[in-house]
Design a protein that fits this description.
This protein is of the alpha+beta class and 255 residues long. The protein folds into two domains: 3-74, Arc Repressor Mutant, subunit A (Orthogonal Bundle), CATH 1.10.10; 83-254, Beta-Lactamase, CATH 3.30.450.40. Helices cover 49% and strands 18% of the residues. It starts with a helix and ends with a helix. This is IclR family transcriptional regulator.
Amino acid sequence: MNAPDTAVKYRAPALDKGLDILELLAAQPAGMTRGEIVRALDRGPSEIYRMIERLVARGYVGRSVEGDRYALTIKLFQLGSAFPPLRRLVAQAQPLMDLFAQDTGQSVHLVTPDLGQSYVVAQASSSSPWEFRLRLGAELDLFTTGSGQTLLAFMTPAQLEHTLNMRGGAEREIPSPLATALEEIRLAGYRMAPSQQLVGVSDISVPVATGGQDIVGVLTCPFLPLVGAKGSSVETQLADCLSALQNTANRIALI
């Protein structure tokens, strides 16, 4: 059963209202008034009021001192961070990612798949004054990003089928040009190509697997050439960075 079919068959209106509020507030750094939430969700004031009060009581939403604005608390972050498989993976990866960033002068982030998309769950900042990095929690499309394509390339058939089913619609099938690119990534063992989102950035992505089979994530370095760096040429810097990233991924998989 895939996600769209499930959404149609099983409905829980009260739960949907609560989730709508949480998702709305997640995009509002300054919070919102109750009236703004009512207008944005196009629902009745009384039903929104009751749901907000329950979310406040359970600690998912906080009320401003003045009492007229509502914003998310840190509780959702705490729940996500407490999820055992993710907590273990990040705990294993973070010190090794920090070491990679220190040694190479490049930033790096760890991406894991979930519900037909992929998400940044850890990142390490470059020791250089200049870097490009993604924020924690950033959602990355599987079809159009280096991290996403690398995840797809190294998924087992069962993982791939489940992931595509979660996407739904026309995206349950991989387009032919992308299928060719995924095969090239599998054969190479990594993906290294210009970023599809930013000019001047080269994405280097390598898989992180457990037991040599199931991919659990991808390490991606958004590579920026460093003027005056050891190794002189950009090609040499890229090769050295790829080697260091592969070594980091292998060490994470062995822990």
